[in-house]
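Input/output pair, single chain:
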Amino acid sequence: MSHITVLSVGGSIVAPDQVDTHYVQKLTALLRARVTAPNSERFALVIGGGKAARSYQEAMRSMRPDAPVESLDTIGIAATRLNASLVMAVLGDVAGDVLVTDPTNIPQSDAPIMVAGGWKPGFSTDNVAVVLAESVGASTLINLSNIKKVYTADPSVDSAAVPLDEITWDRLSEIVGTDWIPGKNTPFDPIATKRAATLGMTVIAADGRDIENLEAILDGRRFEGTTIHP
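Output:
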């Protein structure tokens, strides 16, 4: 399999409240331009659930406080697949017409971009992206969200939190914890953190809304973000 760049695109930037059509058009235009250029790049996109996932999960919790984690995750997965289906449709012919729902069993396709949504309960699309990267042989994953860098703590809670240019998986695990909670908002989910660490993977976390910065990452130029490594 030729080299594939894996992008985990947070639902927080695809659909922060409603679908951010301006952003989706910018992102898809960039990717379309790169896969149709002479060097013929290939991409795998994993799309998160965003506000829709959390809204429906909160509604479920309000109506059934004892809702099992699996039910809440299933709701979130549905939201990720809705967002992913939209992005895939906007990409059109360069993404084919098969949404990846199991990163360990990727459908054969000649399209230069594959698009995936959620997989199964127990983790977020962060972990789907790690497993997909493992499946296609990618040692680096680009994680795009609505934050520019990973912080030493949640800056909305801890005013002393500072942004980091790089961080180890061990240190990140101390920040995000080890338990998965549906809808949990962390720089990288705990299950994905553990798996990426075990694989010795490198993850670049950056603000996905900054398209020029994303281009710099893809080109191997200097960028703004956090490199997470063993």
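The chain has eight helices and nine strands. Helices lie at 11-14, 21-35, 50-63, 69-91, 125-136, 169-176, 190-199, 211-219.
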